Amino acid sequence: MADGSGTPDRAPRGGARGGGSGGDPGVRAGLRTSLAGLTTRGRSFLAAGAAAAACAYVLGQPDLLRVGMLLAALPLVCVLVLHRTRYRVAGSRLLSPSRVPTRTEARVRLRVDNVSRMPTGLLMLQDRVPYVLGPRPRFVLDRVEAGGRREVSYRVRSDLRGRYPLGPLELRLSDPFGMVELTRSFSARDTLTVIPPTEPLPAIRLPGEAGGYGDSHRRSLALAGDDDVIPREYRHGDDLRRVHWRSTARYGELMVRREEQPRQARCTVLLDTRRVGWRGAGPDSPFEWAVTGAASVALHLLERGYAVRLLTDTGAMAPGPDGGDLTGDSSDTAGLLMDVLAVVEHSEDPGLSRALDALRGGEGLLVAFLGALDEQQTALAARIRQRAGAAVAFVAGGHQPPDIEEARLRELRESGWTVLPCRPGARLADLWRQADGRVGGNRTTGGVL
């Protein structure tokens, strides 16, 4: 949920500037701004008044001169009145939620508070939104009493992933005759993050290394000897039977034994973003399917306790400020991953060499979404496989002649990949189910995912 609030950034105190000394440059500038806010009706009245005055002078008609002066005076009086208005208006925006999947609506609530001691006139409220989110919302607010408030709302949705700015909120002031309109912008802005949709995946059994697969909550006991115990400071709620008295005497504060250490399963999701590896564009393109697949697999494994990170062919990793640390709460990791996938685009890199360099070895489970591969990239993918304990590859199909494509897939299988060819219209859940128990790798034991 995001909340943006503020007062207009182009007019002090949220409204047209008040009067003052005629020599004040700020007042003169404000008056020029007010004159520039004359509407078509106001300018027409001024032009008609000037024409009537000129005709009265030429024809010697004093009555026509009075009519011309009245026509010209009305918009000028409206400018002066609106310019000297001193009411203050505060505006805020509430975005809920601030992160939504594609084709899902988010609700935006706008609130206007009159914090002055005098009522406002007619207000027109407008929020700036990108075209992809829909038409620009506009609202007409009736007179707001002193200390009163008005609330309106609208909905936004997008078929495309991305981060979209909302704001600034604009407030348009007008006089009762429609002669003058002044626009004031609030400084607050918010950002709507449209993430790829995810698909629930079935729980399957994937063999994995004993050092990190299966139940991520598997624990290893510390050595029994007192000299090998790793103590830590006592925390509220710790069992007093775990107090390590030798360390307590050494450090001068209560210490407890750290009897068990969690060993968390690790997974790297590799997303191939090479432009040459994918065909088509738009929400239903194969690349968008791969992005959705990467998001679905990442969330699926996070829910089962895996430490998951995202790697692209460019070598960029997420989450983690230092290139992909697998620490932190799973919900925070999920948010970081989805934020990255919301803005991921095609890369111009021709190959997967940077991804190979980024993998240090012993990566645990590796799940890759690969585009079309030539002979060189297939060999690189085979080398990438050696950096992980077990690996599953979703490979885009239909980009090459069938015999060449089958040869590429056979080479990946021989290198140890569990290969799942992806055809147009394939369901990720069905492909994921096909990987049940088929991940290659030596010295593996089963684990339910």
Q: Between the first and last Cα atoms, what is the distance in angstroms? A: 31 Å
Q: Are there runs of 5+ residues with pLDDT below 50, and where?
A: 9-24, 207-228, 320-325, 439-449
Radius of gyration: 33 Å
Strand content: 15-25%
**Overall shape:** elongated
What is the number of beta strands? Answer: 23
Strand order of the largest sheet: 19-18-17-20-21-22
Mean pLDDT: 80
Structural class: alpha+beta
Give the helix proportion (percent range): 25-40%
Figure out the total of helices: 10
Major β-sheet annotation:
6 strands, mixed
InterPro entries: DUF58 (IPR002881)
Protein name: DUF58 domain-containing protein
Biased composition (Gly residues): 15-25
Pfam family, one: DUF58
Task: Describe the structure in brief.
This is DUF58 domain-containing protein. The protein is an alpha+beta fold and 449 residues long. It contains 10 helices and 23 strands.
What would you say this structure looks like, in words?
This is DUF58 domain-containing protein. Residues 15-25 have a biased composition (Gly residues). Residues 232-319 form the DUF58 domain. InterPro entries: DUF58. Residues 1-28 are annotated as: Disordered. The protein has 449 residues and is of the alpha+beta class. It is 29% helix and 25% strand. It is built from ten helices and 23 strands. It has helices spanning 25-36, 40-59, 62-83, 245-251, 286-303, 330-343, 353-358, 375-385, 402-414, 428-434, and strands spanning 2-6, 89-96, 99-101, 106-114, 123-127, 138-141, 149-156, 162-166, 169-174, 181-185, 190-195, 208-209, 219-221, 231-233, 255-257, 260-262, 266-271, 307-312, 317-318, 365-370, 390-396, 418-422, 444-445. The chain has a six-stranded mixed sheet, with helices on both faces. A hairpin with a 6-residue loop joins strand 9 (169-174) and strand 10. Helix 8 packs parallel to helix 9. The protein is elongated, with a radius of gyration of 33 Å. Residues 9-24, 207-228, 320-325 and 439-449 have low confidence and may be disordered.
